[in-house]
Amino acid sequence: MEKLEANSNLNFFQEKIKILIAEDNELNMRLTKQLVNKVLPNSLLYEAYNGEEAIKRMIELAPDLILMDVQMPIMDGLQATHFIREEIKDDQIPIIAVTSCNNEGDKEKCLEAGMNGFINKPVSEGILREALMKWLSNKGKDIKVHVDFNIIHIYTLEDKEFEKVFISLLIKSINEALQDFHSHIIQKDLVAIKASAHKLRGAAATSGLNKITLITSKIEALKDFEEDIIKNLMEQLEDEAEIVDKILSNYLTEG
């Protein structure tokens, strides 16, 4: 990996970055937090002490990156990562293994589980900096994170008039879905909430709305009506819907 200067991309280090640290050892947790705070002084750090808790906090918080210990109680880091990739269908969030395992094949197991990178303990500031720069430096810069217009072009057969109608209906369907969600949440109807999420996820996936697809997948994965988690997911969905609305509306205006 190319060596990075300590002050490279200073604007990146000044961003508010949310990082979830999954680590069952209290001392290692404190050391990792201290290192991350040194590299990213303005970062928001969250803790999880086993794989199940990491999954729950990931759904609740939507962090920008996860530092995942491999060996943890209840559910280990490999199982948690596999669940995030295969059950929640989140292939966007970077997950970095942080482990003292140095046996042959450990790195391959982490990558096979869906992790993006591998850091050995004890973690050094330089290695951590390189990993964070690699996986966070392009955060939010690519419009495809929100809307992949290539998918819309393909779906509408590159018919400009049909595309305008399609996008207008898409904006309307998102707004209607948000209203449905609020109604179901007031009634605490998890079945209806998940049904609305499934419906919106289908429309979003077809239309290249990648983050909405991801958030609705998280809602569909809920097992119980946990008000705080649902509230956080709705905030994420509303924020993303606002971004998508602006992108699509600007596209219609400019088109």
Automatic annotation (TrEMBL):
Where are residues bearing 4-aspartylphosphate located in the sequence?
Answer: D69
> From which domain of life does this come?
Bacteria
InterPro entries for the chain: CheY-like_superfamily (IPR011006), HPT_dom_sf (IPR036641), Sig_transdc_His_kin_Hpt_dom (IPR008207), Sig_transdc_resp-reg_receiver (IPR001789)
Its annotated compartments are: Cell membrane
Report if keyword Lyase is assigned.
Answer: no
Residue ranges constituting the Response regulatory domain according to the UniProt record? 18-136
User: What positions does the domain HPt occupy?
Assistant: 159-251
Q: List cellular component terms (GO).
A: plasma membrane
Q: Which GO terms describe its biological process?
A: phosphorelay signal transduction system
Concerning SUPFAM superfamilies, the annotation shows: CheY-like, Histidine-containing phosphotransfer domain, HPT domain
One family from Pfam that matches here is Response_reg
Q: Which residues carry this modification: Phosphohistidine?
A: H198
Topology of this chain in the membrane: Multi-pass membrane protein
Q: Which UniProt keywords are given for this protein, alphabetically ordered?
A: ATP-binding, Cell membrane, Membrane, Nucleotide-binding, Phosphoprotein, Transmembrane, Transmembrane helix, Two-component regulatory system
Identify a single GO molecular function assigned to this protein: protein kinase activity
List, alphabetically, the PANTHER family matched. Answer: HYBRID SIGNAL TRANSDUCTION HISTIDINE KINASE J
UniProt name for this protein:
Response regulator
The species this protein belongs to is Arachidicoccus soli
